[in-house]
């Protein structure tokens, strides 16, 4: 025959909002930092190439991501700054900064993909190489770096979406430095006994008469 015990059986606790907030915070920090790094790295690499026809034959040309467009790098810096600013603001300010982070990621993706069909940077190089302002590049090719920049923008977008969803439960950097509004207790000065020998000597050092009324 079984017996009844008053000791409760241990239950497996489901992940609460605090645990979800910690996980989302870690993922957002990693995604945002990695995404910004990928974008800044990709914009310094070669994105496109082509040839320009000169008197001696075909002249090879190449353009880096920063030559094609400066938008992805600028948005990556804005996104990284927004990721840091998320922890310095609260309530509506945090929501707005998280939205800016998400928009920076989306804008980075769009500008990187649009750069695939942009030949203006190579056309300028072709005009400089040939001395003909109407010269254009021929047989334009692309590398995989624009797609790397788009992936970086996707990570920034993910960080922004996580901040919008879970940012309310994330800690705030300035919270530990803010006052809670409670009055500070006054420091009570200790009562000095003038009849104590050490206090008499201190009064004599100050030039006071310890025997005076």
The H/E string reads HEEHHHHEHH
Please give the radius of gyration in angstroms: 33 Å
Percent helix among the residues? 40-55%
Strands across the major sheet, in which order? 2-1-3
Instruction: Pick out the low-confidence regions.
Output: 175-183
Mean pLDDT: 79
Strand content: 5-15%
Beta-strand segment tally:
3
Span from first to last CA? 90 Å
What's a quick, concise take on this entry?
It comes from Streptomyces tauricus. InterPro entries: Trp_biosyn_TM_oprn/chp, Trp_synth-assoc_CHP. The model is unreliable at 175-183 (pLDDT under 50).
What does this structure look like?
This is TIGR02234 family membrane protein. The protein contains seven helices and three strands. By secondary structure, the protein is mainly alpha-helical. It has a three-stranded antiparallel sheet with strand order 2-1-3. A hairpin with a 2-residue loop joins strand 1 and strand 2. It is elongated and about 110 Å long.
Entry keywords:
single chain, 213 residues, mainly alpha, 7 helices, 3 strands, elongated, membrane, transmembrane helix, Trp_synth-assoc_CHP, TIGR02234 family membrane protein
In terms of topology, how is this protein built?
Layout: H1 17-42, E1 46-54, E2 57-64, H2 65-68, H3 71-85, H4 91-114, H5 120-130, E3 138-142, H6 145-166, H7 197-205
Antiparallel strand pairs: 1-2, 1-3
Helix pairs in contact: 1-3, 1-6, 3-4, 3-6, 4-6
């Amino acid at each position: 025959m079984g017996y009844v015990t008053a000791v409760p059986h241990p239950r497996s606790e489901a992940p609460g909002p605090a645990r979800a907030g910690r996980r989302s915070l870690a993922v957002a920090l990693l995604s945002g930092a990695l995404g910004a790094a990928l974008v800044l790295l990709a914009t310094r690499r070669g994105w496109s190439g082509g040839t320009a026809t000169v008197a001696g034959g075909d002249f090879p040309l190449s353009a880096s991501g920063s030559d094609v467009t400066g938008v992805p790098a600028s948005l990556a810096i804005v996104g990284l700054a927004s990721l840091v600013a998320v922890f310095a603001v609260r309530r509506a300010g945090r929501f707005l900064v998280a939205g800016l982070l998400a928009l920076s990621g989306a804008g980075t993706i769009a500008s990187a993909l649009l750069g695939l069909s942009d030949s203006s940077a190579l056309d300028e190089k072709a005009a400089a190489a040939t001395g003909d302002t109407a010269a254009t590049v021929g047989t334009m090719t692309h590398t995989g770096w624009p797609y790397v920049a788009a992936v970086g923008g996707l990570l920034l977008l993910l960080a922004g979406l996580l901040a919008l969803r879970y940012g309310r439960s994330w800690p705030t950097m300035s919270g530990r430095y803010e006052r809670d509004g409670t009055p500070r207790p006054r420091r009570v000065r200790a009562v000095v006994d003038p009849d104590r020998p050490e206090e008499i000597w201190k009064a004599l050092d100050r030039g006071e008469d310890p025997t005076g009324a």
